Amino acid sequence: MKIIFQMIFICSALCLLLFAGCSEDETTEPKPEKLKEGDYRATQAAAVPKIDGKGDEECWTKADWAAIDKLWLGSSYTESDFTGRYKAVWSKEKLYLLVEIIDDVLMDSRPDPLNSYWEDDCLEIFIDEDNSDGNHQNNYNAFAYHVSVFYDAVDLGTDGQAHLYNDNLNVFRSKSGTLYTWEFEITIYDDSFVYGAENNKTAELTEGKKMGFAIAYCDSDLSKQRENFIGTMDIPGTDKNLAWIDAGVFGTMELVK
Fold first, then answer.
1. 89 SS3 class
2. Are 207 and 234 in a shared domain?
């Protein structure tokens, strides 16, 4: 009789273990695919951040940092000369970026924001709303906002000339030693955008949406020209200066909950 009770006990224990295993398999969510270099998953913000260059809102604590560390142009640099990283969150209306840059010399020597704007210190934000790749040099298939230390946002228009797109984003930067914290609120437009129009349709941001995306930094120290150009992903081949023309080299940003 004792042996029978022991067998019943063992069978019951095995059944419980099997049930627990099946239950765990049924409730465990599949792990997301590993991100490719330059890709990013932006979480939805329960409450949008205030654009004050502090980055102390709760939404930022739930977002992951991504490095700005791939040399596109120029010679090698030290961490004290440049170090960069960013986070992103979103709402249905806007994309938000928090960017930390260590730069030992902040330089903008040109009073005209449209004059050789890429030669001064600036953050460059690349956005391809529908992730369609392709040429965007003189069209709005994608945007390449060159944001100066004075908050001017410059890109080329359909006429091939540089224009200001300051109305497309809100930005503020704070400083602590050589650490600069940039905070952005960006309105997302599709390729129907018309420069100067008052009725440009904004893109609604939703879970699962994928956009072409990259960030780069133009670092100018004392030579009055860009010494380094550092981005978020490696660009294959010998010509690394393609992102301002070809959205096909961007990474992908996916919007998630």
1. strand
2. yes
Coil vs helix vs strand at 118: helix
Token code pair at residue 82: 């440049």
* Closest to 52 (Cα-Cα) out of 183, 205, 247: 183
Report d(CA 124, CA 245) in Å as an integer.
Answer: 13
d(CA 38, CA 67): 9
Residues 188 and 236 in one domain: yes
Same domain, 174 and 161: yes
Q: Tell me: do 22 and 40 sit in the same domain.
A: no
Same domain for 143 and 23, yes or no, is no
| Structural domain for 149, as ranges | 33-256
Q: Is residue 197's pLDDT more than 60? A: yes
pLDDT tens across 134-171, in order?
Answer: 999 999 999 999 999 999 999 999 999 999 999 999 99
The number of domains in the chain is 2
pLDDT at 155: 98
How confident is the model at residue 23, as a pLDDT?
44
Q: What is the C-alpha to C-alpha distance for residues 52 and 184, in angstroms, rounded to an integer?
A: 9
Mapping DSSP to helix (H, G, I), strand (E, B) and coil, where does residue 206 land? coil
Same structural domain, 230 and 103: yes
pLDDT for 74: 94
pLDDT of residue 20: 46
